[in-house]
Amino acid sequence: METSLKAPKHASPITTLDPGLTHGRRLKFERRVTVLALAAGFPAVTLCVFLLWYDNYTPRVQWTIDLFLVIFWLSIAFNLKQRIVRPLQTLSNILAALREGDYSIRGRRAALGDALGEVMIEVNDLGQTLREQRIGALEATALLRTVMAEIDVAVFAFDGEQRLRLVNRAGERLLAQPATRLLGRTSTELGLAACFNREEGEVSHTMQMVFPGGFGRWDVRRSTFREGGAQHQLLVLTDLSKTLREEERTAWQRLLRVLGHELNNSRTAAGRLGRRYASWAGGHFFTG
């Protein structure tokens, strides 16, 4: 698939490394190609015209041959310009599409052994590589969102101004508000400022806190990451009360099993003792 020949429009001018192009002291690339193509055939055409005019030809023949030479010369020059400029415009459109995230466009005439064909091959391979990386990034992002949504741990991401930029479902339940109302608010407004009032090197600590969606003892973990060159802070809150309740429930279950086992053993021993006493009393009664 080959793109149209219109040059891509950029939102902002690109700074060039050549100061002559910035100040307009040099011709554009298309005009330079046109001038070079015309200059290449100008000496030969001039010599032919000179020989025709100074030879024994009729004016009609001279004008006819001169017109044919000029038309042929101009057609070759402008055709050469198009053959040079059009592939470059195609490459420019393909690169602009890649920059905008469209990796479906491919350049034609990609063949080995040809300078332009090898450039097309490299551009097509670049588009395929970026497409695979984009798909991998989307799949990884989808997996991360699924894990963030299903994990039973409150996760918050704050920017450099401590404004909330990301929250998962557990965080929404903890603060008893949807993400649309939480995003953009500061940690102080959300009641999480105490989680940041610790030493810089302290990564994990426990705190007793009360939130609209729960209260108890929480394991607070902080870490930093960068997005777009700006530093962000990641805050993870784990409810230790649930863990303690699970451990207490497990301990009680074990205790009940031990007590039940002991009661069974005691009842078995009491039964044996009762049967012995009954047999002894019966024998004593009949003998007496």
List its traits.
five-stranded antiparallel beta sheet, rod-shaped, alpha+beta, 59% helix, Beta-Lactamase, 5 strands, disordered C terminus, 2 domains, 288 residues
What does this entry look like structurally?
The protein has 288 residues and is α+β, with helices and mostly antiparallel strands. The chain folds into 2 domains: 19-137, no CATH class; 153-243, PAS domain (Beta-Lactamase, 2-Layer Sandwich), CATH 3.30.450.20. It has helices spanning 19-22, 29-53, 59-99, 115-150, 169-175, 179-182, 187-190, 240-287; strands at residues 154-158, 164-167, 204-211, 214-227, 230-239. The N and C termini lie far apart (118 Å).
Q: What is the C-alpha radius of gyration, as a whole number of Å?
A: 43 Å
- How would a textbook summarize the main sheet? 5 strands, antiparallel
Strand order, largest beta sheet: 2-1-5-4-3
Mean pLDDT: 76
Helix content: 55-70%
- The number of distinct structural domains comes to 2
Which percent range describes the beta-strand content? 5-15%
